[in-house]
Specification:
The chain has helices spanning 48-56, 67-71, 79-89, 97-118, 122-125, 147-163, 188-202, 219-229, 246-255, 268-278, 288-291, 294-306, 319-330, 349-353, 380-386, and strands spanning 3-12, 26-34, 39-44, 133-134, 136-140, 168-172, 207-211, 234-238, 259-262, 283-284, 310-311, 338-339, 355-357, 366-367, 376-378, 387-391. The chain is α/β, with parallel strands linked by helices. The structure holds magnesium ion.
Length: 393
């Protein structure tokens, strides 16, 4: 089998708002075509126009080759070997950041091809099922432009998630710092008040995570809040500090009574090694596209296992990335949860409409996917409706 063509689509929610903090408003979907009629599907959560350019840009020298040019004519079943080829060949322009994101979408599509060609779901090729089913957690983004409004909206959403059968949910308590929601800037006491209201709403037994979106500039502030939150039984505290403050993460993780989680933006296993070995985080959160695809996500999971860390993948995109997360989780014993929002509940029309997937929550869990590859189909009506820029269609 040979790769014959790489097609990319930039998609945009027509109602997108640049001041909103949801990255589910855009998408880059990648289709890798082959001479045997099998097409692989991938996506990535980054600026879609830039990632599209990274894929189709021509190469000019051996450290700066084009991703598309490197894949054309190759056997798509050599997935890991192709990852290494792309990484080495794009060394000057890729290596981290955007270049790895673009590679991640391509790698996801290659895994989809491999599964379709072999008639196997991706989790089987990632090492086989390490669990009977996948456990989702609901990410809950509240409305409200005041602390009281935000608190009440989040508590209501937590109650609703529990009613729908979720056993776990992540409270987005983003009321401080550079990525706060809805224009709110509150103090640390408000964070504690909001978490307390959510615990009150769901009662004991419901697993609660808290995401504060990089809100503190030093670990002592974060530690004060982590200690205040201890009575509310929090599974992890996500991204408390600036992403590059690895020494701050290490100090916080060394003293916090709550697990510290990070990794949604990290690219490659090398950045996860820094995050785990220097940053000492307890929970690594690779986003399958951004980390460099399923090939690199698998490597991160193995490194985390060696270090006794948990994996809880990040995903705030469409059914394509969610399927990739689900397959990764199925094959990873130390991955207790995936971020999963059932499509009908999503605000993003891309999440609701783009993909026909087989993942369904039944009694609070997602059965292992059984279709070959990622197990998804694109809804071409939605693809046409939301595509704003095509590459090589
Ligand atoms: Mg987050």
């Amino acid at each position: 089998m040979k790769i014959t063509r790489i097609e990319t689509h930039v998609l945009l929610d027509p109602g997108y708002d640049v001041s909103a903090c949801s990255s589910a408003q855009d998408d880059l979907v990648v289709l890798v075509h082959t001479d045997e009629g099998i097409t692989g599907i991938g996506e990535v959560d980054t600026n879609p126009w830039v990632a599209q350019a990274m894929i189709h840009a021509r190469g000019t020298h051996v450290l700066g080759l084009g991703l598309e040019e490197m894949l054309l004519g190759e056997d798509p079943l050599n997935v890991e070997a192709l990852w290494d080829k792309l990484y080495t060949g794009s060394f000057m322009t890729g290596r981290r950041g955007l270049g790895i994101c673009a590679m991640g979408a391509l790698d996801m599509a290659l895994w989809d091809i491999r599964g379709k060609a072999l008639g196997q779901p991706c989790w089987r090729m990632l090492g086989g099922a390490r669990k009977p089913h996948i456990t989702p957690y609901a990410s809950l983004l509240p409305a409200g432009r005041t602390v009281a409004g935000y608190r009440d909206s989040l508590a209501a959403k937590a109650r609703e998630a529990k009613r729908l059968g979720f056993t776990a949910g992540k409270m987005e308590v983003c009321v401080k710092g550079p990525y706060s929601h809805n224009g709110i800037q509150a103090d640390d006491g408000a964070i504690v008040e909001i978490v307390a209201a959510c615990r009150e709403a769901v009662g004991p037994g419901f697993v609660m995570m808290v995401d504060v979106c990089y809100c503190w500039t030093n670990f002592k502030e974060a530690l004060w809040v982590a200690r205040q939150l201890e009575p509310y039984d929090i599974f992890f505290l996500e991204t408390p500090l600036q992403l590059d403050d690895l020494d701050g993460y290490a100090a916080l993780a060394g003293h916090s009574p709550i697990r510290i989680a990070a990794g949604e933006l990290q690219n490659t296993r090398f950045e996860f090694l820094d995050l785990m070995d220097r940053g000492k985080v307890d929970v690594a959160q690779p986003d399958v596209g951004r980390v460099g695809g399923l090939t690199e996500a698998r490597r991160v999971c193995d490194l985390a296992a060696d270090r006794g860390k948990l994996i809880v993948p990040h995903c705030w995109k469409t059914g394509i990335g969610i399927a990739a997360s689900a397959h990764l989780s199925a094959a990873t014993a130390h991955c207790p949860y995936i971020e999963f929002l059932p499509a009908p509940l999503a605000e993003s029309p891309l999440r609701r409409e783009l993909v026909i997937d087989e993942l369904r929550m039944v009694d609070g869990v997602v059965p292992l996917p059984e279709k070959p590859g990622l197990g998804i189909e694109l809804n071409w009506d939605a693809m046409k409706k939301y595509t704003v820029a095509r590459g090589n269609p």
